[in-house]
Amino acid sequence: MKKIKVLIAQMEHETNTFSPVLTPWDSFGPNGPYVGQDAYDAMKGTKTPIGAFIDIADELGADVITPVAGFAYPSGPVDGNAYDRFCNLIIDSVKCGCDMIMLDLHGAMVVMDRTLDGEGTLLEKVRLAAPDTPIAVSLDLHANVTRKMVDNADIIVGYKTYPHIDMYETGKLAGELLVKMYRGEISPKLH
To answer: Which of 33, 43, 50, 134 sits CB 3.0–4.6 Å from 28 for a disulfide?
Structure first.
């Protein structure tokens, strides 16, 4: 039996468009985002959506691909080059092939000189690279859910509480629904 490959990534930022100070790559972690195995190691066991995604994939005995994981505190628009690096790491991994994609996003990212809809634009790129691969997304309570996000993800689940004490549960629900969809236990969304 073929081993399932699950791609899991995190790209979280709530943009304050009134701030003139850009949010660079280095703001997305202690020394910038975690990349590759470092992303898996840093996020495994955390009470976050990406932590839940990793737990679900591990329970399936799947090969887990973690191209990048980064979270930046609310601040000015994301630097375009930083965004491109996130997108390229994720898309390059998607192009290598996977059975499911789980993304821990915020839902309110604005990228300087690129897009007002960072998450929707990323999801559009992911969908182009993997048109038939099921995609689940977790979003923050403060997400600006756009048509692009809805059109390019199969499952979207947002936090219900503030403070966000249900981050892990949100990821768990999104990931479990994706697994059910992958197994044919639930139907894909209807447009």
So the answer is: 33
